[in-house]
Amino acid sequence: MSRTTEFEELRPLLFAIAYRILGSVSEAEDAVQETWLRYETSSTTPVSTKAFLSAVVTRISIDVLRSARSRREQYVGQWFPEPLVTDPYEDPARAAELADSVSTAALLLLERLSPLERAVFVLREVFGFGFPEVAAAVGRSEAACRQLAVRARRHMDAGRPRFEADRRGREELAARFFDALREGDVASLRELLAADVQMVGDSGGKAPQWGRGIFGADKVARVLTSTMPWFAQIGGSVEQEELNGQPGAIFRDRDGKVLSALTLDVLDGQIHAIRAVLNPDKLRHVGPVADGWAVYREAQQARRATD
């Protein structure tokens, strides 16, 4: 088997590792490409190609994350991971771990870990690598990796997000939510929202959003239903989509360009969090990106015309 063929077979796994460490589709893709360049020019033949490439992409991702941390500390407003439309890696034996680890809430929780803790947690807890492989990947002893894993697991367990276990139930609730949103049905929306629901956006200062967030079922329902009629009037559309393993939607302008990607945290038959990525820099991998400010101004003009 050629190196190219071996690498392409492992590409989904390598991307999945890098994305969970970095929380960025674009950075994960770059890390995978850099892994290929290093593999292509390497003169050694590894005993296990999977272990070798996983180690290389992990080290690259750790380096990228360390430099990204300073940028994220200076980020304007709330930082969310880039939305993932499709996770290319599948492993039925670890389906639950893979699904949980890619959710927006879990990725935000991973942000609290150090780069080494995050890498060890991802390799060990999510993908099931043995400690010898983890140690080789992060350049630490097995004993040190066990300690890192314990600390990471403790942090993750303390704040681990809970989601509706019934996948079909989540999808049905999301469908009702988006139907009520399109229809501007405040009462129906309010019934689907937890009393302490929060709606927060990540625009990076490059698109309009709801300040620091909207909190409470009444406020969230009213803000959403007051916005949607004008969005629909100027040709905007809402496409229900699974994002980061969660129910969500992609909002597009009249030309089909992407305005935002929204995910819903569902638990006990209610929506507890609504998170929207509006930063155009984080949406380019989804498709051509709209000018959020232009759409906002057009919607405001349509609203004033009917006042």
Could you estimate the helical fraction of the residues in percent? 55-70%
Number of helices: 12
User: Structurally, how many domains make up the residues?
Assistant: 2
Provide the CATH top-level class of the largest domain. Mainly Alpha
Q: Architecture of the largest domain in CATH? A: Up-down Bundle
The computed structural class is: alpha+beta
Poorly predicted regions:
none
Widest sheet: strand order? 2-1-6-5-4-3
Strand-and-helix sequence, N→C? Answer: HHHHHHHHHHEEHEEEEH
Approximate shape:
elongated
Radius of gyration: 21 Å
Calculate the terminal CA-CA distance, rounded to whole Å.
68 Å
Number-wise, the strands total 6
InterPro entries: ECF_Sigma-70_Domain, NTF2-like_dom_sf, RNA_pol_sigma-70_dom, RNA_pol_sigma-70_ECF, RNA_pol_sigma70_r2, RNA_pol_sigma70_r4_t2, RNA_pol_sigma_r2, RNA_pol_sigma_r3/r4-like
Pfam family, one: Sigma70_r4_2
Subunit structure: Interacts transiently with the RNA polymerase catalytic core formed by RpoA, RpoB, RpoC and RpoZ (2 alpha, 1 beta, 1 beta' and 1 omega subunit) to form the RNA polymerase holoenzyme that can initiate transcription.
Keywords: Sigma factor, Transcription, Transcription regulation
